[in-house]
Amino acid sequence: MKISIKFIAILIISLSNVSSAYATRYELSDSGDTVLGEISTVMADERDTLLDIARRHGFGYQDMKLVNPDVDTWLPGEGQEIVLPTKFILPVAPKKGIVLNVPEMRLYYYLPKEKGKPQEVLTYPLGVGRAGWNTPYMNTTIIQKKKNPNWYPPESIRKEHEEKGDPLPKIVESGPDNPLGYYAMRLGQPDYLIHGTNRPYGVGMRVSHGCIRLYPEDIEALFSKVSLKTSVNIINQPYKIGVKDNVIYLEAHPFLDEDIEQFENNLTSVVALIVEVSNEKKYELDWSAAYDAINKPNGLPIAIGMYLPDVIEAKLTENLNDELQVNVSEKIARDEVQTKVSEKLNRALSQAEKVNLELRLDSDLKE
Question: What is the CATH number of domain 21-38+86-235?
Fold first, then answer.
């Protein structure tokens, strides 16, 4: 009993000690790079829980546990260093409207592009449907926006609550007991909403009956920016592929339990995404690094390869007879390119990845 009281006390302190979360506004690169931000850290206060820190910095429960697996959720401790996953890859999807990646439990809102200005994106953590009440994957739009919404629980949910001894009324009016919170946006498939919540600690978890939950302050901010008919693309990408400075990155999140046959130990979806983002460029990949990433998902971008410079690509397509005719100046140019590749690998890839890729490049150039 003492443990339960302590848990409840910590939870109450947690929810009362939270300052507003925020969404960072990111500018998209003209170069086409899709890896944004840099990893950062903060120090926990003695009053903090991991959920407090998550909410203050715009993350959900899953985000924080993936990168801080050994940190106690309820009592991180004074001075405990907490990693913030502030470096991420944009989903491989059209960069317009709302893109909602269910296994990542994150929403991306691409603001309407203004003439002469770079495209911008906002991102928010969210809660999604639990097993048996899955959030559906679909392309749809926002068809209704409602402040202070009433909730009309469907018969299936009322029956579920009755079986648990917690009956619901036919109408739950707006207020602190309304699970929709104070803002809701209805999707084209009208049974589903993007809305707030009266239980913010569920953001970053599979807790809903299929709807999408945001922190109260996040839904209020998003509600004010999104217009009717805004496109909403709900996708299933536990693995995301991105590029920065010609280095290829993989970001892995836990796939949903019901998708185990599709994603467990399976690089097929990773290959498909690489092909989609490569635009027919030649590249080298460290498949062992990619395999490790999907088997130990931590939600952070991991370098798994790089695009080959045009000079090297051309060399790789020459046959052996042509190679014998290469003159000294061409060999010098090739060596200079190899040096630049090595420098890039030193900056962007781990030692193991660097050795693996450099050996392949060296072998290909000598053939």
Answer: 2.40.440.10
Q: Quick check: pTM over 0.90?
A: no
Q: Is 211 a catalytic residue?
A: yes
Tell me: the pLDDT tens digits for 2-22? 334 333 333 433 443 444 445
Give domain limits for the chain: 21-38+86-235, 239-366
C-alpha 190/C-alpha 200 separation (Å) is 23
Active site residue 57: no
Report the alpha-carbon angle 211-296-275, nearest 5.
Answer: 75
**Cα–Cα distance measured from residue 338 to residue 332, given in angstroms and rounded to the nearest whole number:** 10
Q: Which of 57, 209, 211, 253 is catalytic?
A: 211
pLDDT in tens, 74-121: 999 999 999 999 999 999 999 999 999 999 999 999 999 888 889 999
* Residue 46 Cα distances to 7, 16, 75, 78, angstroms: 16, 14, 8, 4
